[in-house]
Amino acid sequence: MNQSAVTTTPVSDGVRQALEISLRGVQELLPQDEWVKKLARSEATGQPLRIKLGLDPTAPDIHIGHTVVLNKMRQLQDLGHQVIFLIGDFTSLIGDPSGRNSTRPPLTPEQIKVNAETYYKQASMVLDPAKTEIRYNSEWSEPLGASGMIQLASRYTVARMMERDDFHKRFTTGQSIAVHEFLYPLMQGYDSVALKSDLELGGTDQKFNLLMGRHLQQEYGQEPQCVLTMPLLVGLDGVDKMSKSKNNYIGIAEDANTMFAKVLSISDTLMWDWYTLLSFKSLADIAALKAEIAGGRNPKDAKVMLAKEITTRFHSAAAADAAEQDFINRSKGGVPDEIPEVSVSGAPLGIGALLKQANLAPSTSEANRLIDGGGVRVEGSVVSDKGLKLEVGTYVVQVGKRKFARVTLA
């Protein structure tokens, strides 16, 4: 179907709204005209579409950037479609080479089992678990056997496989490519055949593998799936993608107070991208809020709303309310209700050594740097003297905006 045909095909308000939700924040939706056709058929027949997201249970390293694709799944789930959360226990044995310049070490079956146990629990923080189909691709991959794998491999050429960007770069630069790595996109594509997928979601680095699903479904006589890729979430620094290695992330397992405060630390500009990719508010509600801010309302109001929504999702509404109050208390110089109790010895003890012993600074030199920057308080007063020595007693010590300890010095 070409684009002109789409414009002449009658599209109901329901399909138009579903398309708008589908396109919210996406990088690409391919082919869009086929997706419209699927949505229209679903509306006419009452048959929900099958929407697939596959994740390999690599070592859990989950932050809110990873939930961007899950959020899109939830939006489509709320439209009444069947979402399938696919755990790649078989493909993990191969190792996904996407975006890598070297062979990825495959995981052991024991590692896969341990990691897989956490994945659904994490996904359930975003998806509706009562309406989510959980599958493992070992169900159909293991029974293929050697002959089935050979037949599957015959349905794609080496020349087309080498069109994949990371394979092409590694080949032209003389880096090795193991033969088993070619099996990964084939197996991911075969997952779509086994599940009769109508739409597969993934990050932008998964585009080749997602399109493989379309190809193989056609090879097996099925209607090909559509492909939806989501952009990578920019981290707290407003520059790089969210990453633990960049220390610009919010972990979904972080405590509510830290999560809330970290969301409030992002820029007013970045906030709107986060609203699009992370919030469950409608685009109309976000546009109305943005108009209020443009009209003079304090941007912090919108940021607090976003922080409370995200904190509620991974904790609770009560925890989000408490985190907001904790943030207010800290901004006024107050001390949180619960802070670590630490005991150290050596009085009289220099402030740098105390910070190190209390695990408030990694080293004495870093402690001195924090003091030079005005980032250390004892009993609410900023410490400016690096030579300060504290006598026997108990002190509330603060480093930066969020790190506190009640230190008893003996």
Automatic annotation (TrEMBL):
<feature type="short sequence motif" description="'HIGH' region">
    <location>
        <begin position="57"/>
        <end position="66"/>
    </location>
</feature>
<keyword id="KW-0030">Aminoacyl-tRNA synthetase</keyword>
<dbReference type="Pfam" id="PF00579">
    <property type="entry name" value="tRNA-synt_1b"/>
</dbReference>
<feature type="domain" description="RNA-binding S4">
    <location>
        <begin position="349"/>
        <end position="410"/>
    </location>
</feature>
<feature type="short sequence motif" description="'KMSKS' region">
    <location>
        <begin position="241"/>
        <end position="245"/>
    </location>
</feature>
<keyword id="KW-0547">Nucleotide-binding</keyword>
<dbReference type="InterPro" id="IPR024108">
    <property type="entry name" value="Tyr-tRNA-ligase_bac_2"/>
</dbReference>
<dbReference type="InterPro" id="IPR001412">
    <property type="entry name" value="aa-tRNA-synth_I_CS"/>
</dbReference>
<keyword id="KW-0694">RNA-binding</keyword>
<dbReference type="Pfam" id="PF01479">
    <property type="entry name" value="S4"/>
</dbReference>
<dbReference type="InterPro" id="IPR002307">
    <property type="entry name" value="Tyr-tRNA-ligase"/>
</dbReference>
<comment type="subunit">
    <text>Homodimer.</text>
</comment>
<dbReference type="InterPro" id="IPR002305">
    <property type="entry name" value="aa-tRNA-synth_Ic"/>
</dbReference>
<dbReference type="GO" id="GO:0004831">
    <property type="term" value="F:tyrosine-tRNA ligase activity"/>
</dbReference>
<dbReference type="InterPro" id="IPR002942">
    <property type="entry name" value="S4_RNA-bd"/>
</dbReference>
<protein>
    <recommendedName>
        <fullName>Tyrosine--tRNA ligase</fullName>
        <ecNumber>6.1.1.1</ecNumber>
    </recommendedName>
</protein>
<keyword id="KW-0067">ATP-binding</keyword>
<keyword id="KW-0963">Cytoplasm</keyword>
<dbReference type="InterPro" id="IPR014729">
    <property type="entry name" value="Rossmann-like_a/b/a_fold"/>
</dbReference>
<comment type="similarity">
    <text>Belongs to the class-I aminoacyl-tRNA synthetase family. TyrS type 2 subfamily.</text>
</comment>
<keyword id="KW-0648">Protein biosynthesis</keyword>
<keyword id="KW-0436">Ligase</keyword>
<feature type="binding site">
    <location>
        <position position="244"/>
    </location>
    <ligand>
        <name>ATP</name>
    </ligand>
</feature>
<comment type="function">
    <text>Catalyzes the attachment of tyrosine to tRNA(Tyr) in a two-step reaction: tyrosine is first activated by ATP to form Tyr-AMP and then transferred to the acceptor end of tRNA(Tyr).</text>
</comment>
<dbReference type="InterPro" id="IPR036986">
    <property type="entry name" value="S4_RNA-bd_sf"/>
</dbReference>
<dbReference type="InterPro" id="IPR024088">
    <property type="entry name" value="Tyr-tRNA-ligase_bac-type"/>
</dbReference>
